[in-house]
Amino acid sequence: MVQLYNLHPFGSQRVVPCKQEPAHFCCGQDVLFVASTAASCRVEVFAVREQGRCEALGSFATLGPVLRMAHSLAGDYLVTIEEKSKATFLRAYMNWRCMSAGSSRVCVRMVGHKMEESYSETLKEQMSVVEMPLSDPPLCISCCPVNGDLLVGCKNKLVMFCLKYRVINQNLTVLDFERSLILHIDNLIPAEVAFCARHIAITTELDVLILKLELVQQSADRTEQCSQGVSAPEKAVDGGVKDESPSTHPLQLELDEFIICQKPVELLGEESKLCEIPITLESTELPTEDTKHFQVQYLLFRRFAPDQSPFGFCEETKLHSLQLLPVYQTGISATAYEETENKRKLLSLFCFFSLPHVGYLYSIGKSVELISTYQYSEKSEQAVLTPQFLHVITSQNLQCFTVRCSAAAARGEDPYIDTTVKACPPVTLDVCTLRMQLFIGPRAICHFKNHIILLTKADTEDITERRKPTRRMLSRRADSIKSRTNSESEPGWNLYIINTVSTIQLYREMVDYSRTYENVKTESCIHLLSEAHLLVRAAIMDPYFLKSDEKEDLLRAFRESCAFLGDCYSRFDTKDYHLALPYYRMSGLSMTEVLKRLVSEGDEIQTYERGFIFYLTHSLNEDSNEELSKESGNKVLQIFYLTDPVQLPDILCSPSMRNVCPLTALKYLQKVEKMMPSVVLTLTKAFLALKMGDLTMYEHEMDSYKETTLACGFVGQPRLLQQRKEGIVMPTEFAVHLKEMQPGLLVAATVALHENSKIELEEADTFFKMLCNSSENTIPQLLVDFWEALLVVSSQEEILQELLLKVTSQYVWRISRKQLPETKPLKTTEDLINSCSHFGLIVPWVTSIMSVGCLSDKDYHEDITRLQSLLCSQSINIASALPFLEPLTEADNVGLTIRVLCNTRLGKYEEAIDQLLRRCPDAAVFYAQHELKGDNQAK
Q1: Compositionally biased, Basic and acidic residues: which spans (predicted)?
Q2: Under 8 Å CB-to-CB from 531, ≥6 apart: which residues?
Q3: Beta partners for 58?
């Protein structure tokens, strides 16, 4: 389906002052080449200035009438197919700009011809014509816009010439060509070819074939063979060209008086190998160490059938306007606005071709797919594709269609497109006609930068029709007008340069136009704003964007278009309502600014659509630094109370809602609680009571549920205890209060958060350190309580070993430094032994050793027994724990018990006994009775 809009992409137009009737023309970097009709055999060159003004640079003679011509941006050369004496010639015109300086010197040489020293001094001041002889007449040509290589189509083959830069001396480098590769394609006569970045597109009258030349690594023993022989897919070589059945012919075969028409077919990707068009590669360049070897990858094959009508086949059904369009990755991201060095790196590639009444646009980058189909209102003559538009000429119109290249390229450039962060209008968006501009007799068209070059040729009857008087004129007056004019005296052709309006101007018109649909046709409004967005996005992806005078305006328009699309998906009830979030994010608008755009002032009740609620929910659930004002926060509360009251606890815990009135929030929560009570809602009310300083209400709310239920309630809303700021977990006022009044509940809640993947172990460490105002290297007792509590419930072996080493390290640190914990531990050693298998029963011989210890150790009895209990269990990895136990020397009883326990766990029983016999012989008997049993008996 094609949308029709009456916009104005075409601005002023100027006539190119050609001396002779144009036969062919093409555009260069900043110039227009016009080849005259058969009589003159010349090419006129015009410089195109601002607003399409033309300035004649000069002209040069050709060998004969020009049949085809093309310009290469890389190398700045013009290549032509010319005819003389019924023979065709392929010629490249180098250094043609010197003629505008007044030089008339011309050097004609054969391709690959060695430059003589006599030319060295004058090559800078003369135009060089390179003739490229071919064994078969050239039919069509194409220059690669990336590297300037030349592809020539001949009957049953394609010839590739590589552009070379020959260094004559340090002051002079000359362009030349080298015939490098021939693609033999049997039973195929190319009508058009397109060449870009080793991608080749070929059309016949009704067939399209797209190929890619892939570089292959050659082994040492095959290098010589491949440089002279054939390299092609195995299927193509084996298939050969012996089968002359109609199924293997890409063209229609005439048999007697019948025309055999094959069925339409479309083969994409790997399937296109089934087209049965064999291709053989022949390398023709001189083999060197840097010689490149290729193989053919089939990308697309499509065959069309002639249009049928009640009157039979339409003989004019032929493909035309084949084009490969590269889209480059620019040095700026459309959503990040960070400038980098601008490098022309190919991002995506598109192929366009057309039948008389329909055009096809394919993406042939990472995958091959049809992205747009263009239906024309009447038979087309020619079409030209640009990154922003498709321009089509018919017998009476110049039509401008939108394209989806920027949408497809954006998805190739940014893997995070179409997420909650970024978005782009879909590739499948309906194309639309922006304008159908009337012209008399359009014949040919080309495009460069912001100019369209259009050739019109009016037939005699067209000119006569223009002179017919209106019916209101008297017949005598009409006769006098007719007698005074001579239709043959006025030329019937014109070459126009039509200046397309700036992207910003057309963008503004699209935005203004979209407002007419705001309250009538929602989809049309979104469609037009999407078109405006893609228009700006395509301009930003242009390689010359960083040097554009409109750069800042385009970036501003991009952000503005994102805001407009965010408004649409927020205000309208659409299936894609979720897109409000990424578009608002790309717009750079703050939440406060979005609220001002969508929420009316005052207390009147509005209707809020899903897109707006989706945006608000995600924005408030993120750890944003933006704080809403008291008024805005209260308005947000009202919005969610009316649309989704269940979310009120989540919304109130957002850092952005820090300034909300707690009394107003409590009133809303009390209303919700009557309908949907929950532990999370109760905890939120307690949180608000704390903010108001109402401890009575706080205690009432906290007494509503048991402590275990409250701990699980924090899992439903972790931000009651912790909030993130710049990626760091920060404790809330609620957490600070629990630390002082209910530390056990705080630890239990944090353990529940960890077990439900709401907080990482490292984050919990930071959380407790900040909560207890501890330094980076100091471990507060509340954190140790958390580690011990987590040992009780955790089942992940990796986390268990990390926790065991953490608590071991802390126990050793406090014992070795005679450091008491700053707060009383929540659990005793006996509690841990009874509730956690990782704390084992302390063996009798350890108790025996400790009974004769010094009295000072009794002050650190809890840490000592905890450490001994850990080593008495089978959970901790002793080998990993040894480095943490080093601070405990063997000089005291604590160190002795630790060393003996470690040796016992490692199976070093003899060393353990020796240690006991030296230090505490009485304990050796208890040790032997307990440890040396069965297989552990000393030998």
Answers
A1: 476-487
A2: 402, 425, 429, 432, 510
A3: 45
- For residue 315, what pLDDT is reported? 55
Residue 191 DSSP class: S
Residue 749's nearest CA partner among 657, 680, 838 is 680
CA distance 396 to 524: 28
Q: Does 932 map to a domain?
A: yes
Residue 356 has pLDDT above 80, yes or no: yes
**Residue 864 is assigned to a structural domain of this protein:** yes
Give CA–CA dist 507/444, Å, rounded.
28
How are beta strands 451-457 and 308-309 bridged, if at all? unpaired
pLDDT in tens, 573-613: 899 999 999 999 999 999 999 999 998 876 666 788 999 99
Q: How many independent structural domains does the chain possess? A: 1
How is residue 724 written in tokens? 């993130």
**Position 866 in a domain:** yes
pTM summary value: 0.82
Alpha carbon distance 171, 81 (integer Å)? 32
Segments in 365-435 forming alpha helices (H): 405-413
Chain centroid, CA 255 distance in Å: 52
Q: How many CB atoms lie within 10 A of CB 457?
A: 17
Residue whose structure tokens are 């207890």:
772
Token pair in block for residue 588: 């750079």
d(CA 774, CA 766): 9
Q: CA 320 to CA 263: how far, in whole Å?
A: 20
Ranges of H-type helices in 151-245 = 223-228, 234-239
Cβ atoms of residues 654 and 620 within 8 Å: yes
Q: Percentage helix, strand, coil, to 5, in the chain?
A: 40, 25, 35
**CA-to-CA separations, 834 to 341, 525, 650, 848, 915, in angstroms, rounded:** 66, 69, 38, 22, 31
The phi, psi pair for 295, rounded to 5°, reads -135, 160
Longest dimension (CA), the chain: 144
* DSSP 8-state secondary structure symbol assigned to residue 155: T
Whether residue 713 contacts residue 750, with contact meaning beta carbons closer than 8 Å, is answered with: no
Residue 891: pLDDT band by 50, 70, 90 thresholds? low
| 606 backbone dihedrals φ, ψ, rounded to 5° | -105, 170
Domain membership of residue 848 as a residue range: 827-939
Distances (CA, A) of 17 to 20, 21, 55, 442, 573: 9, 10, 9, 18, 55
The string of pLDDT tens digits covering residues 437-457 is: 898 889 999 998 889 999 998
Average of pLDDT values for 248-277? 68
Contacts of 629 (CB under 8 A, 6+ apart): 592, 659
Chain mean pLDDT for the chain: 84
Q: Which two tokens stand for residue 181?
A: 């590769």
pLDDT at 122: 60
